[in-house]
Design a protein that fits this description.
Layout: E1 17-18, H1 24-34, H2 39-44, H3 51-65, E2 70-76, E3 79-87, H4 96-101, H5 111-129, E4 134-141, H6 150-165, E5 169-173, H7 176-183, E6 188-194, E7 201-207
Parallel strand pairs: 4-5
Antiparallel strand pairs: 1-2, 2-3, 3-4, 5-7, 6-7
Length: 222
């Protein structure tokens, strides 16, 4: 069984808000807003830009992952403006059955896309990392809150933690512009490919612990 990192003690993120069970709807809202025009999530719901479709997708994701994931956020006035979802070593993909049982039935016509994507990403991640790393499953910042440093506020504390404990981490993105942004945090592009049955480019990035003096990313507004 994969060990959960939901309640792991990380002093570096103690100033950030951990997700509680009754917070899920607020996290779902943030993710749905942040990923409303993201190529992969649009592909997963057949290009449907409906907010309800995005909510269904992210509600099923969070319900499926919450017990094993480390999920935290930055917020103001009760609204979550950005959040991160980290998954533990050994994670090999979202279970399609669990996803459907937790609300994914609402996007059932596209279940085969989820299944093929999870298979593709799990195999690639295993090949590149042997599943011996933490996995940044998602970082979401509301459109109206982007460009003011929230992504850095969410990511840099975890980078500091991973440097301290000597742990690799891994992520994926589907926008080329994001590659350069993540490189500022020490990630390196390790593989590119095509998401099955799509024209989407899949960028896989790996970060090793930084042993030299750590510096903040050169763009403080990311």
């Amino acid at each position: 069984m994969i060990e959960s990192i939901r309640h792991i003690d990380i002093p570096e993120i103690s100033h950030l808000d951990r997700m509680l069970d009754d917070d899920i709807s607020r996290y779902v809202d943030c993710c749905a807003a942040a990923y409303a025009t993201y190529p992969l999530t649009l592909w997963m719901v057949g290009g449907n830009t409906s907010y309800k479709k995005q909510v269904s997708l992210w509600k099923a994701n969070l319900q499926t992952l919450r017990n094993q994931a480390l999920i935290y956020s930055v917020s103001s006035d009760g609204i979550i403006n950005g959040n991160c979802i980290w998954l533990p070593e050994g994670f090999s993909g979202v279970s399609s059955l669990s996803f459907l049982l937790h609300g994914g039935m609402r996007i059932l016509p596209y279940a085969s896309r989820l299944s093929s994507y999870e298979k593709y990403t799990a195999e690639l991640k295993t090949r590149l990392t042997n599943n011996k790393c933490l996995y940044l499953y998602s970082i979401a910042v509301r459109p109206g809150k982007q460009g003011i440093g929230l992504a850095t506020a969410l990511l840099q504390p975890m980078m500091d933690y991973l440097d301290r404990v000597g742990k690799d981490c891994y992520l994926e993105t589907h926008l080329q512009v994001n590659v350069g942004l993540y490189e500022r945090f020490g990630f390196q592009l390790t593989a590119t490919g095509k998401v099955p049955d799509s024209q989407l480019t899949h960028y896989a990035m790996l970060r090793h612990p930084q042993t030299d003096k750590r510096q903040s990313p050169t763009n403080p507004h990311f």
